[in-house]
Amino acid sequence: MPKASLEEKPRACSNCSRAKAKCVQVDDDADICQRCLKNNLTCAKSDSASTRRRGKATHARREQASMTRSPQTLEPPTLIDESLAGAPTQSGQNQGPVPLPTQSTRTVPSDDSISIVPGFDVSFLEADQVLQEYMTTMLPEFPFVPLPFKSSSDMLKEQPLLLKTIIWVCRPPPPEASAAFESWFRQHIADQTVVLMNKNIELVQAILLFIVWNDIYFFVAVKDTMLLQLAVCLVHDLKLTQPRWGQHEAFESIVEDAAHMQNKLPHRLKQTGVDCRTLMGVYYLTSSLTSLLGKRCTLEYTPHFDDCCEQLRRDEEYATDSLLVSLVGIRRIAMKVNNTFWELTGNANNQPSGGVYTVAVAAVRNELDHFMNQLPANLKWNHLLRTHCASIRIRLFEPFKFGDNQGTLEQPHLRCRTIWDCLQSTHELYDAFHLVPVESIPSLTVISILHLALAIIKASRLLCVKDQAWDLTTARTMFDLPSILRQLSKVFDDASSNGSARSQRIVHGLPIFSEYAGAYRGIERAFVARINSDGLVSTPLPMDPVVTSGGDYDLTFWDQLSDFTNGLFP
Fold this sequence. Notes:
Layout: H1 3-7, H2 14-19, H3 34-38, H4 58-68, H5 82-85, E1 113-117, E2 120-123, H6 124-138, H7 152-158, H8 160-170, H9 175-195, H10 201-212, H11 217-220, H12 225-237, H13 254-261, H14 273-293, H15 303-315, H16 321-341, H17 356-373, H18 383-396, H19 412-433, H20 446-462, H21 472-478, H22 481-496, E3 506-507, E4 510-511, H23 512-534, H24 556-564
Antiparallel strand pairs: 1-2, 3-4
Domain Zn(2)-C6 fungal-type: 12-43
Protein name: Zn(2)-C6 fungal-type domain-containing protein
Subcellular location: Nucleus
């Protein structure tokens, strides 16, 4: 059809145009269409008007213009002087040009530094050193978030949140800047997940590192709950808890089902190593806090977790992957203990010291011994695995929760053996902790510190519990808890003065490890005072006049932690 005929085609009348109907003229000379004639309507045609083509949207033009400018020419938005901005304006009066600050008066972030929060800047050179330090000293303590990056500039482009979190962990700022970072971190996580609906691996990894290298008082203030729940929800939303392949998977539509039957379904890629490590990291952290602090927020271990561990063991992309798999394995045993005896915790009416309880304890103990014996040679004396093993034994042999201290048990010697096994397990945990060199103390996660707190609280209870089957005087003679507490205080004092950047983090006005050392000295004083007041020792134990933080140490925190570990001092 010629182009001219297209241009001379008559326009539809207003009635047909409104009805979105086809407008057909009765004949060439008539001024009415068939639809208007049939319905007895007035047929009126609108004047022909040229259609205006829309140009690019304003925001698109701005983005295109900004992309054409080089990064060196980008400047922060100009700010009007506050005195001029606050001056009232009068309507109808011409305003003169407002003088803008010159380039020399603007605060422009340096090109060779990373600005995290106000008052917390790190140069790229130091950031590169932080990444190297993280991979060599921090990763062996929590092998779930290795870094593929060697340059901080590359990581800042790809994973800025994770980079800033690692810098905060390895280079703690002053208390004001640290509080500002914590507030910014929570707000950023909320903006990404709630406002922008973003869900990615980086968010989960940043949450893991933020929690696991926080101080022990962070958990007493219950600041971790929301972040833990968010991490669990994110791994579910990202489908990390589900296999991406399988022979008996359920499909969402009959089309996929039919394609699968005809072998025409596209092959699904298996989960990456990053996916597996992130999933295992959430399981490790939540299960540890469940056993130590009674948290109820955890992941259910499924056969898919075994597939992830097998994939990591087979690929061995990082040297720490074998430790990761072993940590997940021992946490699985710990959760068996937790799930088996959870309902019996704190219930004085139950007396499962014999029968089914004894069988369950023997089964878990044999499984734990077999697990530790089959570890490779390079992991047999790993302090993380040994502290986890000792903490499982402590939870397994907590007799004062289950038995009768009135001497009515039929076999008191079994109860005495169980109490002694529990006390001996606390000593094994101390021995495992002594495997850590003083220079490596600043790299420890809060899980290790909580394990140590668990051993202190359990030993304090067992050395004070009164039971017909328990020789308390002999136990106190053979297990010198005050001496152990003095050793721990010295270790943490040495760690506080070794010059590590992490040891300079301030908690309650003191370096963090000095604060821990003072806590152990305070517990020693309280324990010795209680022993002397019992009158069970012939000679009162010596008690050094230790003063911390300007006065007697406040044990409120340890009372709270004792509540977390299922019960107060007996």
